Amino acid sequence: MKILVVEDEVAIRDLICINLELVGYEVSTAEDGLEAKSFLEKNTVDLILLDVMIPGIDGFSLIEQIKKYNIPVIFVTAKESVLDRVKGLRLGAEDYIVKPFETVELLARIEVVLRRYNKSSNIIKFKNIEVDTNTRIVKVNNKEVYLTAKEYDLLILFLRNKNMALSREQILDKVWGFEYVGETRTVDIHVNRIREKLDLKDNIKTVFKIGYRLEG
């Protein structure tokens, strides 16, 4: 999947690019609206991450000029007022995320938009593991492995955030939801179960005093 990141702040642009590439996206960048417009005239991408306050052509103006390409756009911006959000969505953006943000949230929103546009494959592969997200069937070496609902959701969270450290609190939030009031020990138990069931002992690393990271 190819993503164009349009962002004039170097530190933010580099951080976004690093995290997108870590999970397998092919990333191109543009520092301003004019560069982005020129890039899109010659290249195709699957999604655009677009800052609003960029030089040349601002994000709100640029999205109107590139509608003809039918590429989904997510605004990533410091403009947090409700009016700005509404304007961005009315101009055709698929989503609007305000800086600063958690990388795991950005990746999740990207995945949702790509699925909405049917650009995201329903098959996820890692090592000898294959997951069909439509049927929720998990196979190891082409043999089906039973996972509970929470084990499956935890596996998907790791696969979609590969090489990223996830805190136990983030995992509880994403897999169990805001309502969960149990202890983070629950996360450790479920991590150990999918390590055993899917032979991921060497891939799901414990990050000291934080949580876990799927490496590969």
Provide a descriptive summary of the structure in words.
The protein has 216 residues and is an alpha/beta fold. It folds into 2 domains: 2-116, Rossmann fold (3-Layer(aba) Sandwich), CATH 3.40.50.2300; 123-214, Winged helix-like DNA-binding domain superfamily/Winged helix DNA-binding domain (Arc Repressor Mutant, subunit A, Orthogonal Bundle). The chain has 8 helices and 12 strands. The protein has helices spanning 10-22, 33-42, 59-65, 82-90, 103-116, 149-160, 168-176, 185-197, and strands at residues 2-6, 26-30, 47-50, 73-77, 95-98, 123-126, 129-132, 137-140, 143-145, 166-167, 204-207, 211-214. The strands form 3 sheets. Strands 2-1-3-4-5 form a 5-stranded parallel beta sheet, sandwiched between helices. A 4-stranded antiparallel beta sheet has the order 6-7-8-9, with helices on one face. Strand 6 (123-126) and strand 7 form a beta hairpin. Helix 6 packs across helix 7 (168-176) and helix 6 (149-160) crosses helix 8 (185-197). The chain is elongated. The relative contact order is 0.11. The mean pLDDT is 90.
Helix and strand topology:
Layout: E1 2-6, H1 10-22, E2 26-30, H2 33-42, E3 47-50, H3 59-65, E4 73-77, H4 82-90, E5 95-98, H5 103-116, E6 123-126, E7 129-132, E8 137-140, E9 143-145, H6 149-160, E10 166-167, H7 168-176, H8 185-197, E11 204-207, E12 211-214
Parallel strand pairs: 1-2, 1-3, 3-4, 4-5
Antiparallel strand pairs: 6-7, 7-8, 8-9, 10-12, 11-12
